[in-house]
Design a protein that fits this description.
The complex is a heterotetramer of chains A (305), B (231), C (117) and D (1047). Chain C has helices at 2-21, 25-47, 66-69, 73-104. Chain C has 117 residues and is an all-alpha fold. Chain C has a single domain, classed as Orthogonal Bundle (Helix Hairpins). Among the domains of chain D are: 481-561, no CATH class; 717-949 and 973-997, no CATH class. Chain D has a 3-stranded antiparallel beta sheet. Chain D has a two-stranded antiparallel sheet with strand order 1-2. In chain D, strands 3-4 form a two-stranded antiparallel ribbon. In chain D, helix 22 runs antiparallel to helix 23 and helix 23 (590-617) crosses helix 25 (657-664). The two termini of chain D are 45 Å apart. Classes of the chains: A mainly alpha (305), B mainly alpha (231), C mainly alpha (117), D mainly alpha (1047). The interface between A and D is large, with 85 and 79 residues.
């Protein structure tokens, strides 16, 4: 029983850490992007301000039970996802609940929040919400393909689906990273990652700069706050996942911070350079080059047996 | 043209088949099998001089009964098909020209003799060439002659019907008598075989042939009348 | 007797030829009758024994040596039946033609193609 | 014992006497007429009894007091007794049916009829070949006259054509007889056979045989010399057609059977070839036929071909006549009673074209009888044709005659195509408000009598065939029969009765099964019970619904208990036909049901072929377990048998039927089809794998092929699902795709793979049953299946919404519900197996599944409600209740996956070494691990925390009305423009266009069209000209000569 209590305490601590980390990463990135555009940009703590603003809004409306539950699903999905990934290799308190399932569970749990939020947004009755969800889902299906292939290749490479084991196998210097030992899988995975982060050029469903089109169109106040909190946790969890899979994981918190930030910066960088894709364009793009690379990665292991 | 060509091809095919089958046919040298038995024991068994008759009426009597049935069927079929429906009753055809006097006179003169000849043929079926069918056909030819001479001649249906039914039914009864009194259905030996070579011999054969003659004669006459149309 | 056989076969072929080339239904029936006649000749030929006489055991044929003298009576009996059956069928066919003619006033077989396929 | 000679005596005596008796009035004549026919019937029934019950010696009657060969003899043995009984019962019933027609025609018609019957009797009884000729002529001449009796142009024309053909046939026959006589010196059939004369290969004797059999082949209406027969069947009064098609054709067939021992090797083969060609071609031509009596004509001709083929094969492939006597009898009597019955119904309905047969729908009794007879003709169990066809195909396999198997099975499929189309039109064609059939009691009586005889005979033949486990195999039929007694009572009583009999059956099966079989029968029976409960939501159910449902479920359960191939195949067919009859109850399901039946039958026939190949390598094999000895033929057998299962699981390529059938079937039935019926195919595949492992086709392992098939099915079906506007069609495609995963699992042939398959089998049953039932409830309330016509129903139907939500979460495999378990097992297994690419495709498919899941729930329940659906009520409790039972199961297995996985693991253990271990509640595979229990607790815990948090934060939140949104700077007011539901995934469709070409549908359409076109080209030889028909007869002569002269 003590074990469980300890685990819960660790998990909460770990969660607080990752939440703040996520907030900061988002803030810093916005700043960097602004500088790249030649603007001053918001302060790095802007996400906190946004969150506080959302929470303290006096007007709060909702469209029904499912609308109400959508953010709950979403945040549960984010937290749950993070809980399933061991954040730092060898650290007991940052193992989270990764003993309850392996990589397959992690991948599928990503959908939990998405589905819940899609249901909530759907109930708002706003056509833009539905449209945003349609675009998001369509886009996700395509970007998941190279990602899945990359994971399969990694699993085939290490003969395991346990994230901890995969990280363990990469210890011992940069030469053991999947990046080096399985470059094709890493490439496919990182291309998929662009789509999964839903950053430009794959952010049509959010269309952040224009009129509010997307799942969150009708969300406001505390509902929006939940979404915002999720965004930081969810994004960080994904970053950690990619770090674990392809870049040797992390043995300490600073290593984790550096690695994940660099990984995040990769997608920010791409986003700054490329304009936005339309849905069918992005779907086709993912199904062409990244998928081909992924297939190649997988076929190598199929042939080798 | 295509049709003719196909027909020609078919015919040559058939000709080839017939040639193939009959190519090395040659007549039998001597009797064998069942024919041998018929010839050696037929006369003694049944007392009929004409072996064909013995076969037709007794040995293969069931065939003959069937044959009578076929004729009866045909006659019934013709009658059914040419029956007058109510709406057709009025549409009678007028015969334009009566027969010439030669024909009418000839007919009246000849027909009794023809009938008599027919009767002779079936009565002597067991002794000489001939028999019920032949006799019946001859009798029917007398009716045909009458029709030619008198196009509007009407046969007496009731009489014909009764003769036909009676002879047919009796034929079956005679067959049954064979079954009960002698060896089997249509066995002619329930009547005494009599003196070989006389008219009242060969058991029931003359009786059967008489019945057949009557039946065939009336049936053919019926067919003729039906076909003649509505004079 | 070979000749009778050949004649019979020839008659059969002629009958078949007529059946498939004559359009007139009455001629078709006559053709069938010709073919039947051919067959009857063949039947008789089959029963023939060289030098044999009619299978009537009268004074002309000795009862004891009849086996050597007469032809086979069986085919003759069969022919008799065949003839009668032929007559019956022909009568019925002619009746059909009478009725058909009343319906369409044509004796041409190709005019009776109401049902096909 | 009655002396057989009294049959001709009575017939002739009466026939000769009747013209005189006419004066006593019609009544007297009729009484005497029926007395005579009654005497025939009684006599033959007495014989039947004597031979089968008392084992009497064969009756031989010598006429004229001499023994054969001097005289003609008649013989009545057991075979003759059967034939005579059938013929005389037919005559009596037929005369009764035809009574008004006979009355109109007059006295002579009765004479004709009586002599016609006599002719048939004579054909059966006589043992003299010339006498046979005479009786054949009697039969023919009587039938000519009977056909032309009504003096209509068509019947006269047909009769005339028949007479030409008949005359030619009799010329050939006589020719043959006389040549045979010369060769053998006798006319007695037994004498001829004993003399062995035909074994001589001199041209004369071969010619004799040629002429003899040519004639009988013509009389048997063999292709191409059968144009006349079709005209006769089309034109004659249906009552007469019945007599000819069943009676005289049957008698002639028996005559042929009698003299067939005279034939030599070359004739066995010729009969087999001619017969099977006729069978195939006449069924092919019939595809384009719309005229009912002609359609039946083609079918009759085809059946004659089948009989001739069976006869030929019987002699050709083995000399064991007894077995073939069974086959011939089964096929013969099946055709005999069914065809007569169908002609009689055609006479009652009086509709010429099949499209007009929808009039039949108003008369359930007639419809029922029609269905029964058609099923009999198709060889459905328990009709005699089923047993006959099975035995025939098995024999052909044993003797390596697979061209025969192929031809006969292909012909059967074609026959099914047109007969079922006709039945479909009768059942579900467009109705016209014109004259309804008004059958006389007399007509219904005789038709019903024949249906009863058909069933009884089928039972009798089946009893002879099913040697082991008889009761298990026929149990479903008995249950269905019991439920028939409850028709007409209230739905509640019927459901109650169904539940009781199913439960009883479950208890009966329980001790017989363990392991996998138990698991599947639990799904079949338990699932069936639940679904039966759900049917209560519709207060009215048409007759036959519950018997068929119970038949379907219980025959599926029997599949799991079957030990023998025959028992398995029988129940497979029962399941197919009962589900067909259920599907066709849908309002617009005519075409869908037709397609379903055709594909299913095609599959079943392939299965039959597979079993027949097994006979080659293991003659006499009866058990399913014998499949293990397939050896080098394993690949072929596996491929053939798996066809049936692939059709049932709607694998890609065989799936064409499924979307339509699922969509158009009644709503609760669809749930059963998808949730339960498709699992029968899975069970079959498992069974194959258990017995045959993974056979090779050359060097290609078939389980790899199967695995890819499953993968592609999962992918493409899912892809199609997202573009459907119709909720049921969407779920239908989804169902196809989900079953594709199960096929993958089975194909992996590993412990984990099978676990994945078994887990998903149950899970798919749970969530797809749930979804279809929920949607059924929605359709019940809204009256539409188009999702874009709904919207915002969450507020009106919250419970149904919850069902659907749980359903889609379980479906999409999102943790923590059961769906994830299936996915986890599947991917672990795939990666363990090394099927990486398949895993990638499967993953793609499963993400696409989110699209349709979301679409389903969004378009129906979310968004803005339609004005006319504002007052829609929640679905009835009776359909919600089963849904919540399913939800309960989903939650239980989500929380405690071990409860299901551990027993499953034990079930699979006998076949593969387990690779799944346990650490407490954590399942550990060779690659990874999963603890469903912790996962569930974790998610619930986090969810609760976040929920409480939000509850606190959104204290003052206000609910707003549907249109309270800002949309492009205006407030929208119409749901039609605001609810984004129609063509939801258009951009995706654009992106995926290259993958969406319906190539397979086009392929099958092409197959169908080419086949039908082939038929319509071939049928041009029947140009209606009697002379051409004569030419075709001569052509047959030449063909047969070419076929037989070589030897």
């Amino acid at each position: 029983m003590d074990g469980i209590v300890l685990k819960v305490v660790y998990a909460i601590l770990s969660l607080i850490l990752i939440f703040n980390y996520g907030m900061l990463v988002i803030g810093v990135t916005a700043k960097i992007v602004a500088r790249a555009h030649g603007r001053i940009g918001p302060p790095f703590y802007q996400p906190y301000i946004d969150l506080l603003k959302s929470i303290s809004m006096r007007t709060s409306v909702h469209h029904g039970v499912m609308f109400w539950l959508g953010p709950v699903f979403r945040l549960t999905g984010g937290i749950g996802l993070y809980m399933l990934i061991p954040a730092v290799y060898g650290s007991e308190w940052l193992q989270n609940f990764s003993f309850s399932g392996d990589l397959i569970l992690v991948i599928y749990f990503i959908f939990f929040g998405m589905l819940g939020m899609a249901l909530g947004a759907g109930e708002s009755g706003h056509p833009f919400s539905a449209m945003g969800i349609m675009r998001g889902l369509a886009h996700t299906t395509a970007s998941e393909v190279p990602f899945a292939l990359a994971i399969i290749a990694v699993a085939a490479q290490y003969h395991t689906l346990s994230i901890s084991d995969i990280v363990a196998a990469q210890q011992g210097g940069i030469g053991h990273w999947t990046l080096m030992t399985n470059p094709l899988a890493t490439l496919a995975g990182m291309l998929a990652y662009l789509g999964m982060m839903m950053h430009s050029p794959f952010d049509l469903h959010m269309a952040p700069q224009e009129i509010p089109v997307g799942p969150v169109t009708e969300y406001n106040s505390s509902y929006l706050a939940l979404m915002q909190s999720n965004r930081s946790i969810f994004a960080s969890a994904k970053l950690i996942l990619f770090m674990n899979l392809f870049f040797g994981g992390a043995t300490s918190i600073p290593e984790m911070v550096v690695k994940t930030f660099l990984i995040f910066f990769f997608c920010v960088f791409v986003g700054v350079v490329f304009p936005r894709f339309r849905v069918e364009q992005s779907v086709r793009w993912f199904l062409k080059l990244p998928t081909m690379i992924g297939v190649l990665a997988v076929v190598i292991y199929t042939v080798h047996g | 043209m295509v049709r003719k060509t196909i027909a020609l091809a078919l015919m040559s095919g058939l000709a080839f088949i017939l040639a193939f089958i009959l190519g090395d046919w040659s007549p039998m040298e001597r009797l064998s099998g069942v024919a041998y038995d018929y010839v050696t024991r037929g006369a003694a068994d049944l007392g009929a001089m004409n072996l064909v008759t013995a076969i037709v009426v007794t040995y293969r009597g069931l065939d003959t009964l069937g044959e009578v049935t076929v004729l009866f069927l045909a006659a019934s079929g013709v009658a059914v098909l040419l029956r007058r429906k109510r709406d057709e009753a009025a549409a009678t055809v007028k015969i334009k020209r009566a027969a010439s006097e030669i024909v009418t006179t000839g007919a009246s003169l000849l027909s009794p003799f023809i009938v008599m000849f027919g009767a002779y043929i079936f009565l002597n079926g067991h002794l000489s060439p001939g028999g019920g069918f032949q006799g019946g056909a001859v009798i029917a030819s007398a009716v045909l002659l009458l029709f030619l001479a008198h196009p509007d001649y009407k046969l007496r249906h009731n009489v014909l019907n009764i003769i036909e039914s009676f002879s047919g039914f009796t034929y079956v009864l005679v067959g049954l008598l064979g079954l009960f009194l002698a060896g089997g259905f249509l066995d002619n030996r329930f009547l005494p075989l009599g003196t070989y070579g006389t008219i009242l011999s060969a058991g029931a054969i003359p009786l059967i042939y008489t019945l057949i003659g009557l039946k065939v004669g009336t049936e053919l006459a019926g067919i003729l009348e039906n076909m003649k149309g509505r004079a | 007797m070979k000749l009778v056989m050949v004649l019979g076969a020839a008659l059969m072929l002629i009958g078949f030829w007529g059946l498939i080339t004559r359009r007139n239904m009455i001629k078709m029936i006559l053709s069938l009758a010709i073919a039947e006649t051919g067959l009857q000749l063949i039947m008789i030929a089959v029963g023939y024994i060289n030098g044999g006489t009619a299978p009537i055991l009268d004074s002309a044929v000795d009862k004891l040596s009849a086996v050597q003298q007469v032809v086979d009576p069986v085919p003759q009996a069969l022919v008799l039946t065949a003839i009668v059956i032929g007559v019956a069928v022909n009568a019925l066919m002619l009746t059909f033609i009478i009725r058909l003619y009343q319906k369409k006033h044509s004796l041409n077989i190709s005019d009776y193609k109401d049902m096909k396929w | 014992m009655v002396n057989p000679i009294f049959i001709p005596v009575a017939a002739l005596g009466m026939a000769f006497l009747l013209p005189v008796l006419e004066r006593f009035g019609r009544k007297t004549v009729n009484v005497l007429f029926f007395l005579t026919l009654g005497f025939f019937t009684a006599a033959s029934l007495i014989w039947l009894n004597d031979f089968f019950m008392a084992n009497s010696p064969v009756l031989r009657v010598f006429t004229a007091g001499f023994k054969p060969p001097l005289s003609i003899n008649l013989q009545v043995g057991s075979q003759e007794a059967m034939l005579l009984a059938a013929i005389n019962v037919l005559s009596l019933a037929g005369a009764f049916y035809l009574l008004p027609h006979l009355n109109v025609t007059g006295l002579k018609a009765r004479v004709l009829f009586l002599l016609f019957t006599l002719g048939m009797n004579g054909l059966v009884m006589t043992r003299d070949i010339f006498n046979l000729f005479v009786f054949l002529e009697i039969t023919s001449i009587a039938s000519y006259a009977l056909i032309g009796m009504d003096v209509r142009l068509k019947s006269l024309t047909a009769g005339f054509k028949y007479m030409i053909a008949g005359s030619l046939a009799s010329i050939f026959l006589l020719f043959g007889i006389i040549l045979l006589y010369q060769a053998s010196g006798t006319l007695n059939i037994d004498g001829m056979i004993a003399s062995g004369v035909t074994l001589n290969d001199s041209p004369l004797i071969q010619g004799a045989a040629f002429m003899l059999f040519l004639s009988l082949f013509i009389e048997m209406k063999q292709f191409p010399a059968n144009g006349w027969a079709l005209d006769v069947y089309q034109a004659a009064h249906p009552g007469i057609s019945a007599m000819i098609s069943a009676g005289s054709s049957g008698a002639i067939f028996f005559a042929l059977y009698k003299i067939f021992p005279l034939a030599g090797e070359n004739w066995y083969l010729a009969a087999a070839i001619t017969g099977s060609t006729t069978f195939v071609i006449s069924n092919l031509i019939a595809l384009r036929q719309r005229q009912v009596t002609r359609l039946l004509g083609y079918s009759s001709v085809g059946q004659m071909g089948l009989l001739l083929a069976a006869l030929g094969f019987g002699f050709y492939v083995n000399r064991g006549r007894d077995n073939y006597a069974f086959i011939l009898a089964a096929l013969f009597f099946n055709h005999f009673f069914a065809k007569a019955g169908l002609y009689w119904i055609a006479g009652i309905v009086k509709k010429e074209r099949i499209e007009e047969w929808s009039a039949l729908r108003r008369n359930p009794v007639l419809l029922f009888l029609t269905g029964l007879f058609i099923l009999a003709l198709l060889g459905a169990p328990p009709f005699a044709g089923f047993w006959g066809k099975w035995a025939l195909i098995m024999n052909l396999g044993r003797e390596d005659t697979f061209w025969g198997v192929a031809l006969l099975l292909f012909g059967s499929l074609l026959e099914a195509a047109f007969l079922l189309r006709w039945f479909g039109l009768a059942m579900r064609g467009a109705t016209h408000d014109d004259i309804q059939p008004s059958p006389a009691v007399r007509e219904i009586f005789v038709t019903g009598l024949f249906a009863l005889i058909s069933l009884t005979l089928g039972a009798r033949f089946g009893y002879m065939r099913l040697t082991a486990d008889l009761w298990t195999y026929v149990f479903p039929l008995i249950l269905a029969a019991i439920l028939f007694l409850f028709e007409g009572f209230s739905v509640y009583l019927r459901v109650m009765a169904s539940l009781v009999v199913m439960l009883f059956f479950g208890f009966y099966l329980y001790p017989l099964e363990q392991g996998l079989a138990f698991y599947f029968s639990l799904i079949f029976i338990g699932g069936g019970l639940l679904m039966l409960l759900a049917t209560l939501y519709q207060p009215r159910r048409s007759a036959g619904y519950y018997p068929l449902l119970v038949l379907m479920f219980s025959s599926m359960a029997v599949l799991t208990a079957s030990k023998t191939q025959l028992g398995f195949f029988m129940n497979w067919e029962l399941m197919t036909f009962s589900s067909y009859l259920l599907i066709i109850r849908g309002k617009k399901s005519r075409k869908a049901a037709w397609l379903y039946a055709l594909f299913s039958l095609g599959g079943a026939l392939a299965m039959l072929a597979g079993f027949s190949v097994l006979q080659l390598i293991r003659p006499g094999a009866e058990l399913l377990a014998d499949l293990a000895y397939a050896g080098e033929y394993g690949g072929v057998i596996f491929t053939l048998i798996s066809m049936a299962f692939l059709v049932k699981v709607a694998a890609l390529g065989w799936h064409i039927w499924a979307p339509d059938a699922y969509a158009e079937a009644e709503d609760d039935l669809t749930a059963m089809l998808s949730a339960i019926l498709s699992k029968a195919g899975i069970w079959g595949l498992l069974l194959l794998a258990v017995f045959m492992g993974a056979p090779l086709w050359h060097s290609l392992s078939l389980n790899t092929v199967l695995g890819w098939l499953g993968t592609l099915t999962a992918f493409f079906a899912t892809l199609y699902a997202i573009f459907q506007e119709d909720a049921k069609r969407l779920l239908a495609w989804s169902s196809i795709g989900q079953v594709g995963y199960i096929v993958m699992g089975v194909a992996m042939m590993s412990h984990l793979g099978w676990l994945a398959a078994l887990w998903h089998t149950l899970n798919h049953f749970l969530f797809k049953g749930l979804l279809f039932l929920a949607i059924a409830g929605v359709i019940h309330r809204t009256g539409t299946r188009n999702m874009y016509e709904m919207g915002g129903l969450i507020k009106r139907m919250p419970f149904t919404f919850f069902s659907v939500m749980i359903g889609i979460i379980a479906l999409s495999g999102v943790p923590p519900l059961t769906g994830f378990g299936g996915k986890w097992l599947l991917y672990e297994a795939l990666i363990e197996k090394g099927w990486y690419l398949q895993a990638g495709v499967a993953f793609f498919a499963s993400t696409i599944a989110f699209l349709y899941c979301y679409r389903l729930i969004h378009a129906i329940f979310l968004g803005i409600p339609k004005p006319d659906q504002l007052q829609v009520r929640e679905a009835p409790f009776r359909i919600l209740f089963p849904q919540y039972i399913l939800i309960a199961f989903i939650f239980v297995f989500s929380l405690k996956p071990a409860w299901l996985l551990k027993p499953l693991s034990a079930m699979v253990a006998p076949y593969f070494t387990p690779t799944l271990g346990w650490q407490g509640d954590t399942a550990v595979s060779s690659l990874g691990y999963w603890n469903g229990t912790v996962m569930m607790i974790l998610v619930v815990f986090i969810f609760a925390l976040v929920l409480l948090n939000l509850l606190w934060m959104s204290r003052g939140s206000k609910k707003v009305k549907p249109f309270n949104i800002v949309y492009a700077a205006e407030k929208p007011d119409r749901p039609q423009t605001t609810h984004y539901a129609w063509h939801f995934f258009t951009p995706y469709q654009r992106a995926m266009r290259p993958l969406l070409k319906p190539l397979i549908r086009h392929f099958w359409q092409g197959v169908g069209e080419w086949t039908a076109t082939g038929g319509s080209v071939l049928r041009r030889i029947y140009n209606g000209n009697g002379q051409s028909y004569a030419m075709l007869i001569l052509l047959l002569a030449i063909i047969l000569f070419a076929l037989t002269a070589g030897a």
